[in-house]
Each structure stands twice: as structure tokens, then as C-alpha cells.
Specification:
Largest sheet: 6 strands, antiparallel
Structural class: alpha+beta
CATH architecture of the largest domain: 2-Layer Sandwich
Radius of gyration: 33 Å
Number of domains: 2
CATH topology of the largest domain: Beta-Lactamase
Number of strands: 13
CATH class of the largest domain: Alpha Beta
Bound molecules: adenosine-5'-diphosphate
Strand content: 15-25%
Strand order of the largest sheet: 3-2-1-6-5-4
Length: 401
């Protein structure tokens, strides 16, 4: 039961407590699990109490989680925590713990639950009749306590990974923003310079008394076009910075690639690299978040540009699309590729061979693609350079939509 509880502690704990009450063999029984709040890494200040009762044929679990200000200090549970070992009471006054129905002649077994040698909980069992220490029962409960400890560890590791992933996503956004901001500064400068030129020319015409309405209208129209271009570029930047949490829009990947190529044109040109597109016509739509997928493309293209130094022959990056069972995007370069032993680390967070690399672009990109139900892989080309392949599911149309 516990082994199958993939990522949630509560249902597993409730099911286990019910079993413990039944298997204990007493007509009246109670089983408790006191657990340190799962989100806490250290000895937590908030503890939760899960309970199950058996009264004859009546079985009840109480998943109403009661918050306790700290680990249990009283009774057998407190003692088990202090000792770090199983505590058995053959005859115990349970009414002292506010459990009057069990009476003064209960038996109790309490065991600490450990994770990484830290006590993260206590498993407690109360039976309604006195009983000498039963080693088989202690052994069974010890096994359950140890499995609960593993489960707590597993869920905590998942939570840590999620937290790390969120942190990585933020860092990656900043990293790719650095690339894009440089490119955008160039991009915005061009229309602004054009506006300065056009308006300077118009002033000149006016000063010389050579300005007729038609000439002025043409110049003003150019100023308007250039101002719109600059505002479009700033809008793109806004979109990229916008907080977003995974939209599910229908997307035309070819358009997205075109926009990304426009965005990175200056970066590529400054590096002496040509961006080439081979986009399949009438590419089926996909569903996803355009900003996130653009971030993946930016990471792949910037990596490809950075991989090609001036010694590379035919310095171009090819972005191609193809529709098969899935939609495929391939970003391919003519750089040196990677040694086979390094290829295995390609998607490992913080793996980088660049002097100032963060080494998170590819791991984030893979997470984003997988979040979209797809796969991202990278391999050396047979002749020269590397290709990164994104495969995304096609949209299946609902017949009633
Ligand atoms: P960073 O770019 O910060 O190093 P990435 O996760 O984007 O982090 O990439 C990790 C590493 O993968 C890079 O440092 C580089 O060694 C390798 N790599 C990525 N793309 C390519 C490519 N197109 N050609 C060769 N090596 C690459």
C-alpha cells in the first residue's frame, strides 16, 4: 500500500491505519500517525495527526488533519520520540490521553518514524485489553514505520525537485532575456535612428522652404511605420517578460519560429551566422504556450550560434519543421558537435562547457517540451555539428468542438 502511494502521503497513511486497527485483533482499537508537516525539511514546528478507530465492526478513519504546534511530547508517542525506539505499555490508562472509551486497561505500542536519521513522525497503536509485549506485532509495526519514513522522503524529494525546477525556470528566463535584450536594443535602435533621420530631413525641407504637402506626408508616413516597428519590438519584449504559467493555446509553430528568427536576427548577424528556415507548408497546429516554446527555440538557436566559432565552415543554423505522426522542429548547426561522453550530460542541470555558461538552458527546455507532451533530444550530425529535435503531439480535433 505504501510502496504504491506514488506522491501523496495522506491516502497511504489512512489506508495503513485502517489495516493496523483491523489486524491488531482487538474489538476496540485506535491507530495514530503523528507526522511532521511534509513541506518542512528540518524538524518541523507543525505536526499533523492522522487517526483511525475501530469499534467492533465499525471502522472509521479521521482524515481531518489536526495541526499540532510541535512533535508529541506526552504519553508513549513522546517517549518513543525521546528514546528513538519502540515503546510498549502492557497496561495503560488511555483516558489520560483523552481516549476514555479504551479505558484504563489498554495496551500501547509507539514507534518513531525516521527519514535520514531524523524522526519525522510516530506510529502509535492502542488495543482495548492488556497485553504483554508481542514481538511479531512490534516487528510488523516497525516495518510499516520504516516504509512511512521512505514515503515521506520520496514526497519531500519530489517537492524539492519541483521547487528547484521553478527556481531554474526563473533563472533560465533571466539568462535567455540577457541574449534577447541585447538583440532588442539593436532592433529598437534601428527604427529610432530612422525616425531621427526622417524628421531631420523634414525639418531641413521646411527650413529651405522646399516642403510641399506630398513630400511631408511621405516622410511622416515613414516616421509612423518606423514608430510602429519599434513599438512592436517592445511589445515582443513585454510578452517575453510577462509572467506566464503554461497557457494552452492553439499555435502555428512556423509563425512562432519566424518570430523567433526575427528576434535573434541581430544576435546571429553579429556572430557572423546565417539563420535559415525550411518550414513545411500547412503545418498542423499544436497546443501550448507560445512564450515557453519560444524560450526553448531561443535556447537552442543561441546554443547553436555559440557553438560555431570563426573556424567553422558554412556557419549557418537551420531551423526546419516537418509533420509526421508528430510535429517535428529541428535546430541544426555546423559547429564541432559534442564528444560522446559529454552527450550523456547534455540535459543535466548546471552542466556547461562555456566559461560563463549557466548550464540550465537545455534542462529547462526539455522540461518545457515534456510539459507539452513532447520530447527533446540532441545528437551529433553524421558529418558536422549538432541537431536538436523537438517532437510535439498533433492536435486531435474533437468531432463536437
Ligand atoms: P549553457 O549554454 O549555459 O552552457 P545549456 O544547457 O544551454 O547551458 O547547454 C549545456 C551545454 O551543452 C553547453 O555548455 C554546451 O557544452 C552543450 N551544447 C549545447 N548546445 C550545443 C550545440 N549546438 N553544439 C555543441 N554543444 C552544445
Amino acid at each position: 500500500m505504501i510502496a504504491n502511494a506514488a506522491d501523496s502521503v495522506e491516502p497511504a497513511v489512512e489506508a495503513v491505519l485502517e489495516r493496523v486497527c483491523l489486524e491488531g485483533g482487538y474489538p476496540l482499537a485506535r491507530a495514530y500517525v503523528h507526522l511532521a508537516s511534509i513541506g518542512e525539511e528540518s524538524q518541523s514546528s507543525v505536526w499533523l495527526l492522522h487517526r483511525a478507530y475501530r469499534s467492533g465492526g465499525d471502522m472509521r478513519t479521521d482524515s481531518e488533519i489536526m495541526q499540532q504546534p510541535g512533535p508529541p511530547a506526552e504519553g508513549p508517542a513522546g517517549e518513543a520520540l525521546r528514546l528513538g525506539a519502540a515503546v510498549w505499555r502492557s497496561r495503560y490508562d488511555a483516558s489520560a490521553l483523552g481516549i476514555p472509551d479504551l479505558g484504563k486497561r489498554a495496551c500501547v505500542c509507539a514507534l518513531p518514524i525516521f527519514h535520514n536519521e531524523t524522526a519525522v513522525g510516530v506510529l502509535e497503536f492502542f488495543g482495548s485489553a492488556p497485553c504483554a509485549r508481542d514481538e511479531d506485532w512490534v516487528e510488523a509495526l516497525t516495518d510499516i514505520a520504516s516504509q512511512l519514513g521512505h514515503l515521506v522522503g520520496r514526497v519531500r524529494a519530489q517537492m524539492r525537485a519541483l521547487r528547484q525546477q521553478a527556481g531554474l525556470a526563473r533563472m533560465s528566463r533571466v539568462a535567455s532575456m540577457r541574449e534577447v535584450a541585447g538583440s532588442l536594443a539593436h532592433e529598437v535602435n534601428q527604427p529610432l535612428a530612422a525616425i531621427v533621420n526622417y524628421s531631420g530631413g523634414a525639418l531641413h525641407l521646411l527650413e529651405q522652404g522646399r516642403a510641399d504637402d506630398e513630400k511631408l506626408a511621405r516622410v511622416l508616413d515613414q516616421v509612423r511605420i518606423q514608430a510602429k516597428r519599434a513599438s512592436g519590438i517592445i511589445q515582443d519584449l513585454r510578452e517575453l517578460l510577462r509572467h506566464n504559467d503554461g497557457r494552452q493555446d492553439r499555435l502555428d509553430l512556423n509563425q512562432l519560429i519566424q518570430r523567433t528568427a526575427d528576434l535573434l536576427e541581430t544576435t546571429a548577424r553579429d556572430a557572423g551566422v546565417k539563420l535559415r528556415l525550411e518550414l513545411e507548408e500547412n503545418l498542423p497546429e499544436i497546443v501550448g504556450d507560445d512564450i515557453q516554446l519560444q524560450q526553448v527555440l531561443i535556447n537552442l538557436v543561441v546554443n547553436a550560434i555559440e557553438a560555431m566559432d570563426h573556424s567553422c565552415a558554412g556557419r549557418d543554423v537551420l531551423i526546419s519543421t516537418r509533420a509526421g505522426e508528430q510535429i517535428e522542429v529541428v535546430v541544426s548547426d555546423r559547429g564541432p558537435g559534442m564528444h560522446d561522453e559529454l552527450l550523456a550530460k547534455l540535459f543535466t542541470p548546471f552542466f556547461s562547457t562555456k566559461p560563463h555558461g549557466l548550464g540550465i538552458g537545455l534542462s529547462i527546455s526539455r522540461s518545457i517540451v515534456e510539459f507539452h507532451g513532447g520530447r527533446l533530444s540532441g545528437a551529433n550530425n553524421p558529418d558536422q555539428g549538432m541537431s536538436f529535435r523537438i517532437r510535439l503531439p498533433r492536435v486531435t480535433n474533437c468531432p463536437h468542438a
